[in-house]
Specification:
mainly alpha; 223 residues; 62% helix; 2 domains
Length: 223
């Protein structure tokens, strides 16, 4: 999870480090960095605080109208909260230029052991999301689906798997990759290790070589 707004930190459980492969851990970290880049941390904290306040008011026996309004606000906040997970998932797809590492990470996070990858059928799991969509076409089914999902802070895993695939295959994602590739070509590289730099850096974040004010390193080579 990601906590804090002014001083942001990513909290990683030891079980995640033990149970996930290296690229899957990177996918989870990219997901959390997506929350940071999209500035979700502040709004998610506000959402949790408002939901907690609404529950406190309801427990005090507030009037029915107030309870109804509070429930509507809570439902809207939780709906945004779940959708923010889709945005963060897209950051992981962008980091790897594909959906597979994040999809595998999701499998393990919902309880599928990493030592049985051959027994897991990704496409069958995604098909469950497509079947879910078909079942929610009717008005009553949509209401039931919302009821089943309303108590969770995260979307259903099958839907996240499906959305990862949809995003990775979208025209918008290809545009993101083109922009990222163009930006990389415009960035200077460290003369010591070749790592891509950003103008204004005082040190290379890969090898630690100092960057002088005139854009050169300590040996006088132009970055």
């Amino acid at each position: 999870m990601t906590v804090g707004h002014a001083r942001t930190a990513i909290l990683i459980y030891s079980g995640l480090l033990e149970d996930l492969a290296e690229d899957e851990i990177q996918a989870v970290l990219a997901h959390e960095c997506g929350h940071i880049m999209a500035e979700h941390t502040l709004y998610r904290q506000m959402a949790v605080a408002m939901i907690s306040a609404g529950e406190a008011v309801a427990s005090m026996g507030s009037v029915l109208l107030g309870q109804t309004a509070g429930a509507a606000i809570q439902a809207a906040l939780m709906n945004w909260y779940r959708k923010s997970e889709f945005t963060a998932d897209r950051a992981a797809v962008a980091f790897f230029h594909g959906a597979e590492p994040m999809q595998r990470a999701l499998f393990h996070l919902i309880g599928v052991p990493k030592w049985m990858p051959g027994e897991v059928n990704h496409s069958a799991f995604i098909e469950q999301a497509e079947e879910f969509d078909k079942r929610t076409e009717a008005k009553w089914d949509r209401f039931l689906a919302r009821s089943l999902d309303s108590g969770s802070t995260h979307p259903m895993p099958a839907l996240r798997m499906r959305e990862l695939t949809v995003w990775a295959e979208s025209h918008a994602f290809r545009q993101v990759l083109r922009i990222a590739k163009s930006n990389r070509h415009e960035r200077p590289a460290c003369a010591q290790c070749g790592h891509s730099m950003v103008l204004g850096w005082r040190f290379c974040q890969s090898c630690g070589t100092a960057v002088l004010q005139d854009g050169t390193n300590e040996t006088g080579e132009q970055l």
